[in-house]
Amino acid sequence: MRNHRILLRRVPSGLPTPEDFDSDEVDVPAPADGQFLSRTIWLSLDPYYRNIMKGSQFYAERLTPGDPMCGETVAQVVESRHPGFAGGDYVVVRNGWQDYGVSDGVGVRKLDPSAAPLSTALGVLGMPGLTGYAGLVYLGEPRPGQTVVVSAATGPVGSTAGQVARLVGARPVGIAGSPEKCRYAVEELGYSACANYRDGNLREQLEAMCPDGIDVYFDNVGGDTLGAVLANLARDARVVLCGMIEAYSMDQPPPGPFLGPVVAARATLKGLVVYDWLHKQAEQQRVVAAWIRDGVFRYREDVTEGLQGAPGAFCRLMQGRNFGKALVRVAPEQRA
Amino acid sequence: MRNHRILLRRVPSGLPTPEDFDSDEVDVPAPADGQFLSRTIWLSLDPYYRNIMKGSQFYAERLTPGDPMCGETVAQVVESRHPGFAGGDYVVVRNGWQDYGVSDGVGVRKLDPSAAPLSTALGVLGMPGLTGYAGLVYLGEPRPGQTVVVSAATGPVGSTAGQVARLVGARPVGIAGSPEKCRYAVEELGYSACANYRDGNLREQLEAMCPDGIDVYFDNVGGDTLGAVLANLARDARVVLCGMIEAYSMDQPPPGPFLGPVVAARATLKGLVVYDWLHKQAEQQRVVAAWIRDGVFRYREDVTEGLQGAPGAFCRLMQGRNFGKALVRVAPEQRA
């Protein structure tokens, strides 16, 4: 049995390209005592991998060229020498970009395959969903009638934040990067309006869409987009700083926006790291799963077939050209 | 009786120069019913006047060239047609840069001349003192043992924030612009250390002075100084954004610092406007006056003699070349 892997060939300069990756095939590793082997089914693609490549993700080890790419996956246990896991179990585990992985079980979450589609454990019912939910509810503190702006509005984090805003009675306004995404944001996700940042004049677009100012901003991108929002803050606004995707592909951190409007608005900016909110994961899954069952909460997946497509899909993600949660189907859910 | 006035001649380009001001002499105005006339004793010079000149101070009317310069003053009532004020009363009133002013009493605070030196009503026991006190106590929330960094550390706002930090058991570290100011900060104001930002490498200076990271930052200047602090934040840090003096003399708002470190630290940035905290003014005066009487709280004034010196003194202030609360003694406290 062979293990197909995608490796980091070199740290990208700027936006990643498929040439920054390599692949190989090695023997499938054998689990030691206290470990289990699992076969990868779904691979999650997330912008923060770009930070890990350059060593600037503060809660993860830097990758070295030649290493297999890191990544969160849904997998099925093949062989277990760990008392907590048995063959056939479905798990969320960091197998990375490869067909098989060995784990000691730390940080691994078991999945009930009958509760929800397995892929949702990497998106709407996984880390991205928890990020959007906990960040908006506990840091953004939206109130009914308030205006909540969300950037990367149709992605797995943003679409959760935007729909939570709507379902708690606030008025969500999205920011996205194409007319199709903006239409989907309004028609499917229930945003009241959605600005296309590629149209320019984002500050004026938001001013028109948020005539009473922005009470909450859930920021996924940083940069000029953040500056355009700050210029439209309402008094006592809250800004949730989640991730600055615009900066991930830059060697030097870019300057940020002028913060004078934060003073004028008496606004509060708060940094969000999802790993601080794992104690809310059960709540998030219960609440969001119920909304999905009730048909009031939608999610969208952008699926690439086969591990060999992962580099290209990751590059599209970093250009904002995915549409929905970026996933790679590495293998079928049921073993052939 | 003639009224000597300093006028705005033109909106400065960049840092103000004395040529941006003019002066004239007019008749002393007569108070109407419901007004009083007062003679100016002390004129306060504050960086935010520069914002009013260019119309970017959000809570004040823009000045038009030819207008008398605006400003907070301590004055004595000369003639009153207002039921709340009598001849001889000492008041804090916005007479601006002139010998005499007329007021309808709105926002005017009466002073007890025996309670504290009159000039302190414009500094340590006035708006700057309230800014440093309320901003640090209620937004910064310093705790004993925590590290509190204060920029413009020897000015009236910063020296209040720094000394409050010390008196609540935290460890204050200052940022100032000369060896003399840094020495004064440590030896007189009780800062544990003080970095001279003109020496460069502020980020490294702060790293050495704050080995456990910065728990609270009281920001008076913005810009690169703020960036150097953000790079040294401790987990769950609070940053009080008070005023961005570096930007006041710029026509276009400059970029701000990269906010990635705010996410990593899970920090909170909060905008401070002193006029939201007037309900704490009595508390601030009671607490700080007691500390001054006990000899544990110091203040320093930078006094210019005569109204004609106000333009030069204001220009020095905007270059950070004052040392202590910038005041102009317009007339003796007692009438000759």
Largest sheet of chain A: 7 strands, mixed
Q: Which of globular, elongated, flat, extended, rod-shaped describes the shape of chain A?
A: globular
CATH architecture of the largest domain in chain A: 3-Layer(aba) Sandwich
Number of β-strand runs of chain A: 15
Largest interface: A-B, 30 and 30 residues
Relative strand content of chain A: 25-35%
Distance between the termini of chain A: 15 Å
Radius of gyration of chain A: 20 Å
Number of domains of chain A: 2
The top level CATH class name of the largest domain in chain A: Alpha Beta
Oligomer classification: homodimer
Instruction: Examine the coordinates and then state which fold CATH places here, giving the name of the CATH topology of the largest domain in chain A.
Output: Rossmann fold
pLDDT < 50 stretches of chain A: none
Q: Which structural category do the helix and sheet elements of chain A fall into? A: alpha/beta
Helix content of chain A: 25-40%
